[in-house]
Design brief:
Layout lengths: L20 E4 L8 E8 L4 E4 L4 E6 L9 E6 L2 E2 L3 E5 L2 E3 L1 E7 L5 E7 L8
Antiparallel strand pairs: 1-2, 1-7, 2-3, 3-6, 4-5, 7-8, 9-10
Length: 118
């Protein structure tokens, strides 16, 4: 009988983006800081630069004829990272602001200080 794998359901929106500076709050790399290299919104995971390094055994291919053991970053669940604002971890919220041309723009802000992030 075939097993049916369930995909994880993300109920909250991921407010982190590629390039954000984050700190890891749980796991083997707790306390390590780095930039986000990629965000997988469906799985709810992020890849942080030089964190959660794993060894991947690579078979020789035409692209890499040597093969061997490769060190690379593995994904971390979004609940285990926090945005760094002025050197301290903080949560992120959204504010709706009116732009100069009259349209409404959604902006991210740090909940600890209220400062706009971008």
């Amino acid at each position: 009988m075939a097993r049916i794998l369930k995909k994880p359901v993300i109920k909250s929106k991921i407010k982190l983006r590629k390039g954000d500076n984050v700190v890891i709050t749980a796991g083997k790399d707790k306390g390590r800081q780095g930039h986000i290299l990629s965000v997988d919104r469906k799985a709810g995971r992020v890849i942080v630069e030089s964190a959660n390094i794993v060894h991947k055994h690579q078979k020789p291919t035409q692209a890499s004829p040597q093969g061997g053991i490769i060190k690379r970053e593995a994904p971390i669940h979004v609940s285990n990272v926090a945005y760094l604002h002025k050197g301290k971890p903080t949560r992120i919220g959204y504010k709706l602001e009116t732009a100069k041309d009259g349209r409404i723009v959604k902006k991210r802000f740090a909940k600890s200080t209220g400062d706009l992030i971008d």
